[in-house]
Amino acid sequence: MKGKRILAGAVAAFMLLTGIGCSSGSVAANEVLIWAITGSDNAAWLTEMESRFEEENPDIGIVVRATFSDYNSILNSFARGNSPDIVYVDDEYFKRYADGGLITPLDELIDQYWAGSDIVDVSEMWEPALSRYRYEVSNNTSDADDPLWCVPKDMDPTVLYYNEGAFEELGINVISVEKEDLAAWNAGEIADKNGKKKSDFDALTGVTVPARGYWRSDGNWTGGTAWTRPVSGATLVFNNRIPMSWDETEDLAMLCTSSYNASSPTTYGYYTEWWFNYGWSVGGDCIGDTSGDGDYVFTLNDDAPNYKVLKETAVNGTPYAPGTEDVPVFVSYEDKHYLAQDAAAAAELIADGAIEEYPSTLDAFTRFCALSRDKTASDPAGPAVSPKPSVVPTASDALGRFNTDGYLAMFVGYSSSVASLSDEVDWNIAPLPVYKTYVSRFSDETVQLGARAGHSKSTGLAVAADSRKKEMAMKVLAFLAGTPGQTALASQHYNLPNTEAIARESYLTDSDKNYEQLLVETRYQGPGDWWYMLDREWIANWSEPLNQNANSVRNSGMTLSEYFAAVVDRTNRDLQIYKEAIGG
Fold it and tell me: N or C: which end of the chain has fewer CB atoms below 10 A?
C-alpha cells in the first residue's frame, strides 16, 4: 500500500486516467486516489506529503496519478464510475466540472469532517482564493453564500518586477518605505525595509520625499507621448512599497526606454500582458451584467463613466456603502448605466458627495493598449514604452527578456517567476500600478485613488462527485490544504500557500527582496477573465485581434475603432450562448 505512484507523461497518464490498461493501476479500498498536475516542484511536495500523511495515518494510503502536460484535457475525460477521489483543478476550469456534476460541493463535507480540526480552517484562507471557488451553477454567480467546490491549494499573484541595478545606473534613489512610515523616515528616525536611513542617500539631503511610487523633483511628468528628460540635478526616487500611478509608470518607463533616453541601460521600460489591473482599478471589467441576473455583455468599449462610492447611498434602488482606501466600492455596471441615462440623478448624487465620477472602462483599456503602440499611430497613439506582442507575446517571454539584463526595466509577472529570475540581474519586487491623480505634480495628496487590483492564478483541490471514500478524501484534503501541506508548500518559495499567516512566516526573511509585496498584492487579486465562463472560447474572439494577430491592436495593426467593430457583436452572441447553457 505504501509508496506513491506518480506516472509522468501525457500518454501514460491518459491511459491510466481513462481506464485504458488499468489492470496494474487499481486502488485498494483504503487508498485515496489523487489526480494531480505535477511539475518538479509539485511532485516533490506530493512525495513529501504522501510519506508524512501515511506515517501519521497508517490505515490510509495515497495513490497519485499525474501528468506534466495536457492535464486539463485528461481531466475532461473522466467519466462516472471511473473517477478519482481528489482532483487538482485550475481555477480556469473548475466551473465546467461543477456544471457537469463531476465534482461535489464541499460545504457540508467541511462541516461534517473538519469541525474542530486543529490543522485546517477554511476561514483563515485567502478570501480572494476561496471566493473564486464559490459558484452557483444555475446563474453563474460567485457570491459569499454560493457553494464552495474547491479549497485552494496555492496562489500565484502578479506583481511588478523591476531591474534595481538599471534604476540606480540612471540615478534613481531606490527606497523601501511604507506610506505610513514615510514621515518618520524623512525625519531620520527610522531605517527603511532595506535598513537604509535617509542620511544614507546623499541626493536626498534636504529633500522631503513624498508618498509616491516614483517621484522626480522637477515635476516634469509625461503627458501622452511627450516626455521631458529630468533636468540636471533633479532628484529621482522609486519607492518599492507604494504603487505608482499610471502617469508615474509611463514616465519612469520612458526614462528606461532607449528611444526616449539614449543613455538608458534597458531597451524598453515596461511590459504587461494584461489589462486587468487597469480596468479593475477604476471599477471596470471586460463584461458587465445588464440585469443582475447573468445577462452579460462585452464592455471593454464601454465609455460610460465609472462611479466610486464615497458614502452610504442608493443608486437605482441598490444600496451602496463605501469601501476602504485600497478596496473602494464602485457602482455596478447595471446601475452606472442607469446613471448614464439619468444625468440629473447622477448630478444630484455627485453634488451630495455620495459618488464620484471616475474614468470609463474604455479610458482604462485604451491606456493599456497604448503602451506598446507606435508614437505615430492614431486611435490611440502610444508611448511605445513596451515591446509589441509580436516580439514579447507573454509574461513568460518578458521574464526571459528581463533576465538578459538589458532589454526590460519592469514587467508584470506571477510570483512563480521568482524561481526563474536570473542571479545576473539585480531584480526586486514592487506593487502593481494603480489609477490615481494628485493635487499637483509636486504633491502626494491624491485627488482620485482607484482600487489596488490585479489577477492571480490558483489551483484548487476538489472531491470527485462519484468518490465512495469521501470521509478518507476529506482527511487527506485537510492534510494537503491545512497546516502540514501548506507549511511544506511555502518552504519551496514557488506558489504562495493558501493562508497569509503561513506565507508570512516563510516569505518574510532577512532577504533584501521585497517579498512582502507578494502577500500584499494577493489580498487584492481575483481570477482572470478565463475564469468567468465555463471555458475561454469566448475570449479568443477579442484577445487574438487585441494581442496575437500580426495586425492586432497592440501591434499597431488596427485602431481601437476597427477592433471594436470586429469583436463586440460576435462576443456578445457568444456570451448569450453561455447564458443559455449555464446549468444545462
Answer: C
Give the DSSP letter of residue 58.
Answer: T
Euclidean distance between CA atoms 242 and 179, whole angstroms: 7
Average pLDDT, the chain: 91
Taking a C-beta distance cutoff of 8 angstroms, is the pair 457, 156 a contact? yes
CA dist 525 and 376 (Å) reads 35
Q: Which residues have C-beta within 8 Å of that of residue 346, sequence separation ≥ 6?
A: 307, 339, 340, 355, 357
Cis peptide before 328 (omega within 30 of 0): no
Burial 562-578 (b: 16+ CB within 10 A, else e): ebbeebbeebbebbeeb
Domain 10-158+457-528 has CATH 3.30.230.80: no
Q: Is residue 355 pLDDT above 70, yes or no?
A: yes
Domain boundaries, the chain: 10-158+457-528, 304-358
pTM, two decimal places: 0.93
Sequence-ordered alpha helix ranges (H) in 257-387: 276-281, 333-341, 343-351, 361-370
User: 159: which residues sit within 8 A by CB, 6+ positions away?
Assistant: 412, 413, 415, 429, 430, 431, 432, 454, 517, 518, 521
Does position 27 have pLDDT exceeding 90, yes or no?
A: no
Q: Rounded CA gap, 236 and 223, in Å?
A: 18
Q: Is the pLDDT of residue 236 over 50?
A: yes
* Predicted confidence (pLDDT) at residue 221 exceeds the cutoff of 90: no
pLDDT, position 245: 96
List Cα–Cα distances, 250 to 228, 241, 529, in angstroms. 12, 18, 25
Confidence of residue 557 (pLDDT cuts 50, 70, 90): very high
Residues in the chain: 584
User: Which pLDDT band, with edges at 50, 70 and 90, does 494 fall under?
Assistant: confident
DSSP notation for 120-173: --GGGB-HHHHHHTB-BTTTTB--TTSPB--EEEEEEEEEEEEEHHHHHHTTEE
Q: Which amino acid is at 464?
A: A
| 383 backbone dihedrals φ, ψ, rounded to 5° | -75, -15
pLDDT by residue (tens digit) across 356-391? 999 999 999 999 999 999 999 999 999 999 999 999
Distance (Å, whole) CA 297 – CA 293: 12
- Measured in whole angstroms, the distance separating CA 473 from the mean position of its chain's CA atoms is 30
243 contacts 434 by C-beta, under 8 angstroms: yes
